């Protein structure tokens, strides 16, 4: 049976403009300038920094660029091209996004934001026909349980230290795994900790970017499998 890696970006800082900010003058002005709908436009700290100053939990919100980079890193990998990788996004609002196997995200960030706006508005991209992205009507715990995987891993700064090559071998030996990686700029995911059976750190407690973690893991698995 071929290896299957199930990668979940947890508590990703991706959401539409929250209701309490939709009438903010700065956000409305930015939406008009970009031709966006302020109801469905993704919250982005780079565009909405001033308005976000009054937003609860602002430190962990408004970073769709992390999600974009995660999709670029994972879906352009050899694992994805070989059909050995499935990708999901669990957002800060608790929603789960499924990514169709074999699909590639837009390379351009602003095109990606437009795609997310369409997803927030219609629930899937495109709104009808063969979907590329869609919201799932499940919680992250229901998603992980449905995967029926014995090895459920969370990669986090304060986890048990492990070399990425050792982790790659563990996943390959098991025939695959569910691997959760934080998609927020700061903090940790309590829901992911509750679901994980093993919590590992790839840098012995040192903080790493989401992109660094994703690339290190995927490249190590590809190397161990002899793909690169």
UniProtKB/TrEMBL annotation:
CDD domains noted in UniProt: Nep1-like (cd18088)
Positions of the record's site feature: Interaction with substrate rRNA: 63, 104, 111
Catalytic activity: a pseudouridine in rRNA + S-adenosyl-L-methionine = an N(1)-methylpseudouridine in rRNA + S-adenosyl-L-homocysteine + H(+)
Protein name according to UniProt: Ribosomal RNA small subunit methyltransferase Nep1
Domain of life where this protein originates: Archaea
GO BP term, example: rRNA base methylation
SUPFAM superfamilies listed in its UniProt record: alpha/beta knot
Record flagged with keyword Ligase: no
Residues that coordinate or bind S-adenosyl-L-methionine: 182, 187, 203-208
Description of how the protein assembles with itself and partners: Homodimer.
Site (Stabilizes Arg-xx): 65
InterPro entries the UniProt entry points to: Alpha/beta_knot_MTases, Rbsml_bgen_MeTrfase_EMG1/NEP1, Ribosome_NEP1_arc, tRNA_m1G_MTases_N
Similarity-based family: Belongs to the class IV-like SAM-binding methyltransferase superfamily. RNA methyltransferase NEP1 family.
Gene Ontology MF terms in the entry: rRNA (pseudouridine) methyltransferase activity; rRNA binding
Name of the gene: nep1
Function as written in the Swiss-Prot or TrEMBL entry: Methyltransferase involved in ribosomal biogenesis. Specifically catalyzes the N1-methylation of the pseudouridine corresponding to position 914 in M.jannaschii 16S rRNA.
Keyword field contains rRNA-binding: yes
Keywords associated with the record: Methyltransferase, Ribosome biogenesis, RNA-binding, rRNA processing, rRNA-binding, S-adenosyl-L-methionine, Transferase
Pfam families reported for this sequence: EMG1 (PF03587)
């Amino acid at each position: 049976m071929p290896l299957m890696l199930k990668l979940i970006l947890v508590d990703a800082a991706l959401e539409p403009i929250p209701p309490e900010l939709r009438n903010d003058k700065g956000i409305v002005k930015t939406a008009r300038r970009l031709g966006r709908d302020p109801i469905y436009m993704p919250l982005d700290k780079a565009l909405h920094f001033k308005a976000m100053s009054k937003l609860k939990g602002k430190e962990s919100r408004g970073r769709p660029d992390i999600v974009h980079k995660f999709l670029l890193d994972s879906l352009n990998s050899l694992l994805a091209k070989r059909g050995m990788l499935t990708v999901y996004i669990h957002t800060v609002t608790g929603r789960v996004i499924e990514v169709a196997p074999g699909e590639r995200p837009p390379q351009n960030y602003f095109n990606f934001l437009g795609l997310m706006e369409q997803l927030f508005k219609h629930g899937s991209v495109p709104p009808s026909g063969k979907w590329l992205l869609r919201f799932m009507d499940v919680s992250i715990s229901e998603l992980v349980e449905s995967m029926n995987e014995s090895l459920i891993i969370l990669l986090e700064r304060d986890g048990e230290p492990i070399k990425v090559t050792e982790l790659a071998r563990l996943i390959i030996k098991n025939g695959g795994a569910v691997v959760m990686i934080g998609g927020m700029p700061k903090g940790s995911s309590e829901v992911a900790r509750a679901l994980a059976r093993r919590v590992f750190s790839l840098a012995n407690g040192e903080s790493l970017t989401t992109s660094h973690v994703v690339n290190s893991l995927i490249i190590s698995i590809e190397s161990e499998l002899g793909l690169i």
